[in-house]
Amino acid sequence: MIVLTLESSCDETAAAVVENGRTMRSNIVASQVDLHARFGGVVPEVASRQHLEAITMVIDAALDQAGLKLDEIEGIGVTAGPGLIGALLVGISVGQAIAYARQIPLVGLHHIEGHILAPLLEREIAFPYLALAVSGGHTHLYRVDGVGLYTTLGQTRDDAAGEAFDKVAKLVGLGYPGGAKIDQLASQGDPELITFPRPMLHRGLDFSFSGIKTAVRNYVIAHPESTQPENLPDLAAGFQAAVVEVLTKKTFQAATENGLQRIVVCGGVACNRGLRLAMQEQGVKKGVEVIFPSPLLCGDNAAMLAVAADYYLCNQISSRQIRARASWPLDLVSRG
Ligand code: KG4
Ligand code: ZN
Q1: How far apart are alpha carbons 308 and 150 in whole angstroms?
Q2: From atom 24 of ligand 1, which residue's Cα is the shortest distance away?
Q3: What are the pocket residues of ligand 1 if the criterion is a CB atom closer than 6 Å to any ligand atom?
Q4: 75: which strand partners?
Q5: pLDDT in tens, the chain (336 residues)
Q6: Closest CA to 135 of 97, 155, 163
Q7: Among 99, 239, 301, 323, which residue has the least CB neighbours within 10 Å?
């Protein structure tokens, strides 16, 4: 089956064409990030308007790159949540319009389901596996038993890890979104010079990141020189080391407790080089396979939705009645 997938849950307008849920024919992402940067975060109304302007061009580009015409598409998958309602409605409306006009099936998908199945576009992975979904909106540990079969094992009680990266970046004047900039600076700094707390390190599988962010704020107030260009790499490295240690320890604890031999790390923060290194090192030590999607499949994109879209469409688990959802626990997807 040749499926067109659409993603517009936050600040990326994306479309992809994927064959049989595995072969990526195209994956186009138009980022709005520069548009929101001057506001220091995503402005929902601005995001919706920009999705509306970009979406048809992005779909045309995805079809072009795939070398296909719209009438060769056999099914549609679109992000239905979680996300900004106005932004989601753009992708959903366009998906419904195409499905209606072409009389092809349509399925509404969970954004995080896309992230945790994304690596299957690059290689086969046997179920079950553990997924750490770590992005601007999520820091969740899931047991993945198959497409549509997800169990939450742990989650953040306050900020997502990406949110903490972005807030710290803003605090030290790096602008928004700052995760990649912190990563870049951290690679030049000493992670042991400034030590930040590791919240809830020895308490269950839930996370808390707002405390690390507050500790950085307090440190910066007490040591204003720490944000000078020559000192910033050490501050970034100290902060990143704290986040990475918590993420790595809890992920491996979850894998051990659940007898899982494979770990998928996905979402925008999975691009972080410190996290990749720490996870790979632990993986070798513990004999657990650690899988990271390539960077284009870590951040928000539409191809990542196609694994689940193909499965649901082929098994006729689809519906034109799609409800945009601001929040949507992944466990409730259960369509396997
Ligand atoms: O998955 P994603 O593109 O969008 C969401 O669903 O949130 O993730 C975006 C998040 C942002 O918080 C961004 O700062 C963070 O991922 N991020 C990074 C890196 N690249 C992106 N955080 C740390 N290190 C990076 N290299
Ligand atoms: Zn995402």
Answers
A1: 12
A2: 272
A3: 10, 135-137, 162, 165-166, 177, 179-180, 183, 267-269, 271-272, 299-300
A4: 3
A5: 999 999 999 989 999 999 999 999 999 999 888 888 888 888 899 899 999 999 999 999 999 999 999 999 999 999 999 999 999 999 999 999 999 999 999 999 999 999 999 999 999 999 999 999 999 999 999 999 999 999 999 999 999 999 999 999 999 999 888 999 999 999 999 999 999 999 998 889 999 999 999 999 999 999 999 999 999 999 999 999 999 999 999 999 999 999 999 999 999 999 999 999 999 999 999 999 999 999 999 999 999 999 999 999 999 886 667 999 999 999 888 664
A6: 163
A7: 323
pTM: 0.94
Cα(160) to centroid(ligand 2), Å: 12
Q: Which two tokens stand for residue 119?
A: 């690596």
State the Cα torsion 233-239-241-245 to the nearest 10°: -170
Tokens (6 digits) for 126: 């046997």
